[in-house]
Automatic annotation (TrEMBL):
Catalyzes the cleavage of L-kynurenine (L-Kyn) and L-3-hydroxykynurenine (L-3OHKyn) into anthranilic acid (AA) and 3-hydroxyanthranilic acid (3-OHAA), respectively. Belongs to the kynureninase family. It catalyses: L-kynurenine + H2O = anthranilate + L-alanine + H(+); 3-hydroxy-L-kynurenine + H2O = 3-hydroxyanthranilate + L-alanine + H(+). Its EC number is 3.7.1.3. Homodimer. The keyword Iron does not apply. Pathway: Cofactor biosynthesis; NAD(+) biosynthesis; quinolinate from L-kynurenine: step 2/3; Amino-acid degradation; L-kynurenine degradation; L-alanine and anthranilate from L-kynurenine: step 1/1. It comes from Parasedimentitalea denitrificans. InterPro entries: Kynureninase, PyrdxlP-dep_Trfase, PyrdxlP-dep_Trfase_major, PyrdxlP-dep_Trfase_small. It holds the Pfam family KYNU_C. This is Kynureninase. Keywords: Hydrolase, Pyridine nucleotide biosynthesis, Pyridoxal phosphate. Its cofactor is pyridoxal 5'-phosphate. The keyword Coiled coil does not apply.
Length: 398
Protein backbone atom coordinates (compact mmCIF):
# COMPACT_ATOMS: atom_id res chain seq x y z
CA UNK A 1 0.00 0.00 0.00
CA UNK A 2 1.20 3.48 -0.79
CA UNK A 3 1.90 5.45 2.38
CA UNK A 4 0.02 8.71 1.80
CA UNK A 5 1.00 10.18 5.17
CA UNK A 6 4.58 9.81 3.99
CA UNK A 7 3.99 11.42 0.59
CA UNK A 8 2.10 14.28 2.27
CA UNK A 9 5.15 14.96 4.45
CA UNK A 10 7.26 15.34 1.30
CA UNK A 11 5.56 18.62 0.32
CA UNK A 12 6.11 22.07 1.70
CA UNK A 13 2.60 23.50 1.86
CA UNK A 14 2.10 26.83 3.67
CA UNK A 15 0.91 26.45 7.26
CA UNK A 16 -2.87 26.52 7.58
CA UNK A 17 -3.56 26.27 3.86
CA UNK A 18 -5.82 23.61 2.36
CA UNK A 19 -4.50 23.29 -1.16
CA UNK A 20 -7.13 21.96 -3.55
CA UNK A 21 -5.44 23.20 -6.69
CA UNK A 22 -2.75 20.60 -7.30
CA UNK A 23 -4.54 19.79 -10.55
CA UNK A 24 -3.48 23.20 -11.86
CA UNK A 25 -0.14 23.79 -10.16
CA UNK A 26 1.28 21.17 -7.82
CA UNK A 27 2.90 22.27 -4.53
CA UNK A 28 6.64 22.38 -3.94
CA UNK A 29 8.39 19.16 -2.93
CA UNK A 30 10.58 19.74 0.14
CA UNK A 31 13.58 18.52 -1.85
CA UNK A 32 13.13 21.14 -4.59
CA UNK A 33 15.33 23.91 -3.13
CA UNK A 34 18.25 21.52 -2.59
CA UNK A 35 17.80 20.05 -6.07
CA UNK A 36 17.86 23.50 -7.67
CA UNK A 37 20.76 24.59 -5.53
CA UNK A 38 22.73 21.50 -6.42
CA UNK A 39 22.14 22.17 -10.11
CA UNK A 40 23.44 25.73 -9.66
CA UNK A 41 26.45 25.05 -7.46
CA UNK A 42 27.50 21.56 -8.54
CA UNK A 43 26.57 21.62 -12.21
CA UNK A 44 26.24 25.02 -13.86
CA UNK A 45 28.80 26.94 -11.80
CA UNK A 46 31.70 24.46 -11.88
CA UNK A 47 31.02 22.64 -15.13
CA UNK A 48 29.79 25.39 -17.44
CA UNK A 49 29.67 24.13 -21.04
CA UNK A 50 31.22 20.80 -20.08
CA UNK A 51 27.98 20.02 -18.20
CA UNK A 52 26.26 19.00 -21.44
CA UNK A 53 28.44 15.88 -21.31
CA UNK A 54 29.65 15.55 -17.73
CA UNK A 55 26.19 16.05 -16.20
CA UNK A 56 24.31 14.46 -19.09
CA UNK A 57 22.31 17.64 -19.73
CA UNK A 58 21.98 16.81 -23.42
CA UNK A 59 20.10 13.57 -22.82
CA UNK A 60 17.97 14.58 -19.84
CA UNK A 61 15.08 15.08 -22.27
CA UNK A 62 15.19 11.30 -22.64
CA UNK A 63 16.22 10.08 -19.19
CA UNK A 64 13.52 12.20 -17.56
CA UNK A 65 11.19 11.31 -20.44
CA UNK A 66 11.52 7.64 -19.50
CA UNK A 67 10.70 8.42 -15.87
CA UNK A 68 7.61 10.42 -16.88
CA UNK A 69 6.66 7.74 -19.42
CA UNK A 70 6.69 5.05 -16.74
CA UNK A 71 3.77 6.84 -15.04
CA UNK A 72 1.60 6.38 -18.14
CA UNK A 73 2.75 2.87 -19.03
CA UNK A 74 5.05 4.00 -21.84
CA UNK A 75 7.99 1.81 -22.83
CA UNK A 76 11.47 3.30 -22.32
CA UNK A 77 12.62 5.25 -25.35
CA UNK A 78 9.14 6.45 -26.34
CA UNK A 79 8.79 9.66 -24.30
CA UNK A 80 10.77 12.92 -24.17
CA UNK A 81 10.34 16.03 -22.05
CA UNK A 82 10.81 19.67 -23.05
CA UNK A 83 8.99 22.69 -24.46
CA UNK A 84 5.44 23.47 -23.39
CA UNK A 85 2.29 21.43 -23.73
CA UNK A 86 0.88 23.77 -26.39
CA UNK A 87 3.95 23.02 -28.52
CA UNK A 88 3.70 19.30 -27.90
CA UNK A 89 0.03 19.36 -28.98
CA UNK A 90 1.06 21.09 -32.21
CA UNK A 91 3.81 18.54 -32.85
CA UNK A 92 1.59 15.55 -32.20
CA UNK A 93 -1.33 16.74 -34.33
CA UNK A 94 0.98 17.80 -37.16
CA UNK A 95 2.62 14.37 -37.10
CA UNK A 96 -0.79 12.69 -37.02
CA UNK A 97 -2.04 14.66 -40.03
CA UNK A 98 0.97 13.73 -42.11
CA UNK A 99 0.24 10.06 -41.41
CA UNK A 100 -3.23 10.39 -42.98
CA UNK A 101 -2.56 12.82 -45.84
CA UNK A 102 -5.76 12.19 -47.77
CA UNK A 103 -8.17 13.28 -45.01
CA UNK A 104 -9.06 16.80 -43.90
CA UNK A 105 -10.92 16.50 -40.58
CA UNK A 106 -9.56 16.92 -37.07
CA UNK A 107 -12.02 15.83 -34.41
CA UNK A 108 -11.90 17.19 -30.87
CA UNK A 109 -14.66 18.31 -28.49
CA UNK A 110 -15.97 21.62 -27.18
CA UNK A 111 -14.86 20.79 -23.64
CA UNK A 112 -11.21 20.64 -24.65
CA UNK A 113 -8.76 23.10 -23.16
CA UNK A 114 -8.75 26.10 -25.52
CA UNK A 115 -5.01 26.11 -26.24
CA UNK A 116 -5.30 22.65 -27.79
CA UNK A 117 -7.97 23.97 -30.16
CA UNK A 118 -6.01 27.18 -30.82
CA UNK A 119 -2.87 25.25 -31.73
CA UNK A 120 -4.87 23.18 -34.23
CA UNK A 121 -6.33 26.39 -35.72
CA UNK A 122 -2.82 27.73 -36.21
CA UNK A 123 -1.64 24.46 -37.70
CA UNK A 124 -4.55 24.41 -40.16
CA UNK A 125 -3.65 27.91 -41.34
CA UNK A 126 -0.13 26.74 -42.19
CA UNK A 127 -1.41 23.90 -44.34
CA UNK A 128 -2.08 24.85 -47.94
CA UNK A 129 -5.18 22.65 -48.05
CA UNK A 130 -8.56 23.16 -46.42
CA UNK A 131 -8.79 21.45 -43.06
CA UNK A 132 -11.77 21.34 -40.73
CA UNK A 133 -11.76 21.21 -36.94
CA UNK A 134 -14.91 19.61 -35.53
CA UNK A 135 -15.79 20.18 -31.89
CA UNK A 136 -18.97 18.32 -30.94
CA UNK A 137 -20.16 17.92 -27.35
CA UNK A 138 -17.93 15.44 -25.53
CA UNK A 139 -20.65 12.80 -25.43
CA UNK A 140 -20.99 12.96 -29.23
CA UNK A 141 -17.31 12.31 -29.96
CA UNK A 142 -17.68 8.56 -30.45
CA UNK A 143 -20.36 9.07 -33.12
CA UNK A 144 -18.13 11.65 -34.81
CA UNK A 145 -15.28 9.20 -35.40
CA UNK A 146 -15.85 8.40 -39.08
CA UNK A 147 -13.67 7.63 -42.08
CA UNK A 148 -13.49 11.37 -42.83
CA UNK A 149 -11.38 11.93 -39.71
CA UNK A 150 -7.60 12.14 -39.95
CA UNK A 151 -6.81 12.91 -36.30
CA UNK A 152 -8.86 12.58 -33.13
CA UNK A 153 -7.41 14.97 -30.56
CA UNK A 154 -8.86 14.69 -27.09
CA UNK A 155 -8.02 15.62 -23.55
CA UNK A 156 -8.81 12.49 -21.57
CA UNK A 157 -10.03 14.31 -18.45
CA UNK A 158 -12.06 17.48 -19.02
CA UNK A 159 -10.30 20.41 -17.34
CA UNK A 160 -13.59 21.86 -16.12
CA UNK A 161 -15.95 19.04 -15.23
CA UNK A 162 -13.48 16.20 -14.67
CA UNK A 163 -15.44 14.03 -17.13
CA UNK A 164 -13.26 11.27 -18.54
CA UNK A 165 -13.27 9.91 -22.08
CA UNK A 166 -13.08 6.15 -22.58
CA UNK A 167 -9.56 6.00 -23.97
CA UNK A 168 -9.66 2.41 -25.14
CA UNK A 169 -13.02 2.73 -26.85
CA UNK A 170 -11.97 5.91 -28.69
CA UNK A 171 -8.71 4.37 -29.87
CA UNK A 172 -10.38 1.18 -31.04
CA UNK A 173 -12.97 3.03 -33.07
CA UNK A 174 -10.45 5.53 -34.46
CA UNK A 175 -8.06 2.82 -35.54
CA UNK A 176 -10.90 0.86 -37.10
CA UNK A 177 -11.69 3.82 -39.40
CA UNK A 178 -8.03 4.57 -40.09
CA UNK A 179 -7.68 7.71 -37.91
CA UNK A 180 -4.79 8.63 -35.64
CA UNK A 181 -5.39 9.59 -31.99
CA UNK A 182 -3.63 12.26 -29.96
CA UNK A 183 -4.31 12.21 -26.22
CA UNK A 184 -3.72 15.16 -24.00
CA UNK A 185 -3.01 13.71 -20.56
CA UNK A 186 -2.61 17.05 -18.73
CA UNK A 187 -5.26 16.08 -16.17
CA UNK A 188 -4.55 12.35 -16.28
CA UNK A 189 -0.87 11.85 -15.53
CA UNK A 190 -0.45 11.48 -11.79
CA UNK A 191 -4.23 11.62 -11.38
CA UNK A 192 -5.62 8.40 -12.86
CA UNK A 193 -3.98 5.16 -14.00
CA UNK A 194 -3.10 5.34 -17.69
CA UNK A 195 -1.52 2.62 -19.80
CA UNK A 196 -0.69 4.00 -23.22
CA UNK A 197 0.90 0.74 -24.32
CA UNK A 198 -2.07 -1.44 -23.43
CA UNK A 199 -4.50 1.10 -24.93
CA UNK A 200 -2.41 1.15 -28.15
CA UNK A 201 -2.14 4.95 -28.10
CA UNK A 202 -0.54 6.68 -31.09
CA UNK A 203 0.47 9.96 -29.44
CA UNK A 204 0.18 11.27 -25.90
CA UNK A 205 1.22 14.66 -24.56
CA UNK A 206 0.93 16.40 -21.21
CA UNK A 207 2.57 18.68 -18.71
CA UNK A 208 4.46 18.09 -15.47
CA UNK A 209 3.45 21.13 -13.42
CA UNK A 210 -0.03 19.86 -12.53
CA UNK A 211 -0.31 16.51 -10.71
CA UNK A 212 3.43 15.80 -11.08
CA UNK A 213 4.39 18.90 -9.03
CA UNK A 214 7.47 19.94 -11.01
CA UNK A 215 6.87 23.69 -10.69
CA UNK A 216 5.35 26.52 -12.73
CA UNK A 217 6.38 26.26 -16.37
CA UNK A 218 7.91 22.81 -15.87
CA UNK A 219 8.62 20.92 -19.12
CA UNK A 220 5.93 19.16 -21.12
CA UNK A 221 6.21 15.65 -22.53
CA UNK A 222 5.36 13.77 -25.69
CA UNK A 223 5.02 10.03 -26.10
CA UNK A 224 4.96 8.32 -29.51
CA UNK A 225 4.10 4.63 -29.93
CA UNK A 226 7.24 2.59 -30.74
CA UNK A 227 5.60 1.30 -33.93
CA UNK A 228 5.51 4.90 -35.29
CA UNK A 229 8.95 6.13 -34.26
CA UNK A 230 10.60 5.48 -37.59
CA UNK A 231 7.99 7.24 -39.70
CA UNK A 232 6.65 10.04 -37.56
CA UNK A 233 7.18 13.39 -39.23
CA UNK A 234 8.57 16.09 -36.92
CA UNK A 235 6.92 19.30 -38.11
CA UNK A 236 9.05 21.30 -35.66
CA UNK A 237 12.33 20.20 -37.17
CA UNK A 238 14.77 21.60 -34.64
CA UNK A 239 18.40 20.61 -34.33
CA UNK A 240 17.73 18.61 -31.15
CA UNK A 241 15.79 16.13 -33.25
CA UNK A 242 18.44 15.85 -35.93
CA UNK A 243 20.20 12.59 -36.68
CA UNK A 244 23.56 14.25 -35.97
CA UNK A 245 23.05 17.61 -34.25
CA UNK A 246 26.76 18.23 -33.89
CA UNK A 247 27.51 17.59 -37.55
CA UNK A 248 25.88 21.00 -38.10
CA UNK A 249 24.63 19.98 -41.53
CA UNK A 250 22.57 22.49 -43.47
CA UNK A 251 19.77 20.01 -44.14
CA UNK A 252 17.43 18.38 -41.63
CA UNK A 253 17.39 14.62 -41.23
CA UNK A 254 15.27 13.34 -38.31
CA UNK A 255 16.91 10.96 -35.87
CA UNK A 256 15.98 7.56 -37.35
CA UNK A 257 13.72 5.33 -35.30
CA UNK A 258 14.03 7.26 -32.08
CA UNK A 259 11.87 9.52 -29.95
CA UNK A 260 14.74 12.04 -30.13
CA UNK A 261 13.18 13.37 -33.32
CA UNK A 262 10.39 14.92 -31.23
CA UNK A 263 12.92 17.10 -29.40
CA UNK A 264 13.08 20.65 -30.73
CA UNK A 265 15.73 22.92 -29.21
CA UNK A 266 17.73 23.57 -26.05
CA UNK A 267 15.49 22.91 -23.04
CA UNK A 268 15.59 24.60 -19.64
CA UNK A 269 18.06 22.38 -17.79
CA UNK A 270 17.37 24.24 -14.53
CA UNK A 271 13.73 23.18 -14.71
CA UNK A 272 14.82 19.56 -15.16
CA UNK A 273 16.34 19.55 -11.67
CA UNK A 274 12.91 20.36 -10.22
CA UNK A 275 11.24 17.75 -12.39
CA UNK A 276 13.69 15.13 -11.21
CA UNK A 277 13.05 15.98 -7.55
CA UNK A 278 9.28 15.86 -8.14
CA UNK A 279 9.51 12.48 -9.87
CA UNK A 280 11.37 10.96 -6.90
CA UNK A 281 8.14 11.20 -4.89
CA UNK A 282 6.33 9.04 -7.45
CA UNK A 283 8.81 6.17 -7.15
CA UNK A 284 6.84 4.48 -4.34
CA UNK A 285 3.33 5.44 -5.43
CA UNK A 286 1.02 2.76 -6.76
CA UNK A 287 -1.39 4.35 -9.26
CA UNK A 288 -4.22 2.02 -8.27
CA UNK A 289 -3.87 3.02 -4.61
CA UNK A 290 -3.82 6.64 -5.71
CA UNK A 291 -6.97 6.18 -7.75
CA UNK A 292 -8.82 4.44 -4.92
CA UNK A 293 -7.94 7.22 -2.50
CA UNK A 294 -8.80 9.94 -5.01
CA UNK A 295 -12.27 8.45 -5.46
CA UNK A 296 -12.78 8.06 -1.71
CA UNK A 297 -11.81 11.67 -1.00
CA UNK A 298 -13.81 13.02 -3.96
CA UNK A 299 -16.96 11.15 -2.93
CA UNK A 300 -16.62 12.48 0.60
CA UNK A 301 -16.17 16.04 -0.68
CA UNK A 302 -19.17 15.83 -3.01
CA UNK A 303 -21.51 14.37 -0.41
CA UNK A 304 -20.46 16.85 2.29
CA UNK A 305 -20.99 19.79 -0.07
CA UNK A 306 -24.34 18.48 -1.23
CA UNK A 307 -25.61 18.14 2.32
CA UNK A 308 -24.12 21.32 3.76
CA UNK A 309 -23.90 23.85 0.91
CA UNK A 310 -27.26 24.70 -0.67
CA UNK A 311 -27.14 26.44 -4.05
CA UNK A 312 -23.85 24.78 -4.99
CA UNK A 313 -24.47 22.01 -7.54
CA UNK A 314 -22.12 19.24 -8.55
CA UNK A 315 -21.07 19.62 -12.19
CA UNK A 316 -19.37 16.35 -13.09
CA UNK A 317 -20.36 12.76 -13.79
CA UNK A 318 -21.90 10.99 -10.76
CA UNK A 319 -20.08 7.76 -11.46
CA UNK A 320 -16.54 8.19 -10.12
CA UNK A 321 -15.24 5.84 -12.81
CA UNK A 322 -16.20 8.50 -15.36
CA UNK A 323 -14.22 11.26 -13.62
CA UNK A 324 -10.61 12.24 -13.22
CA UNK A 325 -9.23 13.55 -9.94
CA UNK A 326 -10.79 17.00 -9.73
CA UNK A 327 -14.38 17.88 -8.93
CA UNK A 328 -16.35 20.92 -10.02
CA UNK A 329 -19.44 22.67 -8.79
CA UNK A 330 -21.62 25.30 -10.37
CA UNK A 331 -22.54 28.29 -8.27
CA UNK A 332 -24.03 31.49 -9.60
CA UNK A 333 -21.58 33.52 -7.53
CA UNK A 334 -18.70 31.14 -8.17
CA UNK A 335 -16.09 33.82 -8.78
CA UNK A 336 -16.49 35.88 -5.57
CA UNK A 337 -17.15 32.70 -3.59
CA UNK A 338 -13.83 31.23 -4.74
CA UNK A 339 -12.07 34.48 -3.81
CA UNK A 340 -13.61 34.24 -0.33
CA UNK A 341 -12.45 30.62 -0.05
CA UNK A 342 -8.92 31.58 -1.10
CA UNK A 343 -8.86 34.44 1.43
CA UNK A 344 -9.79 31.87 4.09
CA UNK A 345 -6.93 29.56 3.05
CA UNK A 346 -8.88 27.06 0.94
CA UNK A 347 -7.34 27.19 -2.50
CA UNK A 348 -9.33 26.01 -5.49
CA UNK A 349 -9.94 27.88 -8.71
CA UNK A 350 -12.67 29.34 -10.85
CA UNK A 351 -13.39 28.45 -14.46
CA UNK A 352 -15.81 30.62 -16.43
CA UNK A 353 -18.72 30.92 -16.52
CA UNK A 354 -19.67 29.64 -13.05
CA UNK A 355 -17.47 26.70 -12.09
CA UNK A 356 -15.64 26.30 -8.79
CA UNK A 357 -13.02 23.61 -9.28
CA UNK A 358 -11.15 21.60 -6.67
CA UNK A 359 -8.25 19.23 -7.24
CA UNK A 360 -8.33 16.09 -5.12
CA UNK A 361 -4.68 15.10 -4.97
CA UNK A 362 -4.10 12.18 -2.58
CA UNK A 363 -0.33 12.68 -2.42
CA UNK A 364 -0.91 15.59 -0.03
CA UNK A 365 -4.67 15.92 0.65
CA UNK A 366 -6.33 13.87 3.40
CA UNK A 367 -9.77 13.47 4.97
CA UNK A 368 -9.40 16.30 7.44
CA UNK A 369 -8.45 18.70 4.63
CA UNK A 370 -11.64 17.73 2.81
CA UNK A 371 -13.84 18.25 5.86
CA UNK A 372 -12.01 21.48 6.77
CA UNK A 373 -12.56 22.87 3.27
CA UNK A 374 -16.29 22.13 3.40
CA UNK A 375 -16.51 23.79 6.85
CA UNK A 376 -15.09 26.98 5.34
CA UNK A 377 -17.37 26.88 2.30
CA UNK A 378 -20.42 26.26 4.49
CA UNK A 379 -19.52 29.30 6.62
CA UNK A 380 -18.95 31.54 3.57
CA UNK A 381 -22.36 30.63 2.20
CA UNK A 382 -24.14 31.01 5.53
CA UNK A 383 -22.60 34.43 6.22
CA UNK A 384 -22.71 35.46 2.54
CA UNK A 385 -19.07 36.50 2.87
CA UNK A 386 -18.77 36.26 -0.92
CA UNK A 387 -20.79 39.50 -1.21
CA UNK A 388 -17.93 41.55 0.20
CA UNK A 389 -16.60 44.18 -2.19
CA UNK A 390 -13.02 42.86 -2.10
CA UNK A 391 -14.08 39.53 -3.62
CA UNK A 392 -15.69 41.07 -6.72
CA UNK A 393 -12.69 42.24 -8.77
CA UNK A 394 -11.23 39.79 -11.26
CA UNK A 395 -7.51 39.11 -11.31
CA UNK A 396 -5.62 38.53 -14.56
CA UNK A 397 -5.16 34.85 -13.74
CA UNK A 398 -8.16 33.00 -12.35
C1 LIG B 1 -2.98 22.85 -18.56
C2 LIG B 1 -3.32 22.48 -19.94
C3 LIG B 1 -2.64 23.06 -21.02
C4 LIG B 1 -1.60 24.12 -20.82
O1 LIG B 1 -0.72 24.24 -21.89
P1 LIG B 1 0.67 25.02 -21.67
O2 LIG B 1 1.31 25.03 -22.98
O3 LIG B 1 1.43 24.25 -20.62
O4 LIG B 1 0.35 26.38 -21.16
C5 LIG B 1 -2.95 22.61 -22.30
N1 LIG B 1 -3.90 21.66 -22.50
C6 LIG B 1 -4.60 21.11 -21.47
C7 LIG B 1 -5.63 20.09 -21.74
C8 LIG B 1 -4.34 21.52 -20.17
O5 LIG B 1 -5.03 21.00 -19.16
Amino acid sequence: MTDFAKTRAMFDIPEGMIYLNGNSLGPMPKTAPAAMNSFLTEEWQPELIKGWNTKNWFMQTNTLGDRVGRLIGAAPGTTVVGDTLSIKVFQAVAAGLSMVPDRRVILSDNGNFPTDLYMVEGLMKLKNKEYELRIPNPEDVMAGITDEVAVVMLTEVDYRTGRKHDMKAVIEKAHAVGAVVVWDLAHSIGAVPVDVTEADTDFAVGCTYKYLNAGPGAPAFIHVASRLLNDVDPALSGWYGHEAPFAFDTDYRPMPGKIDRMRVGTPSIASFSLLSAALDIWEDVDMNDLRARSIELSELFISEIETRCPGVTFAGPRNPEERGSHVSFRFEHGYPCMQALIAAGVIGDFRAPDIMRFGITPLFINHSDILGAVDVLERILKNETWKEERFQTRSKVT
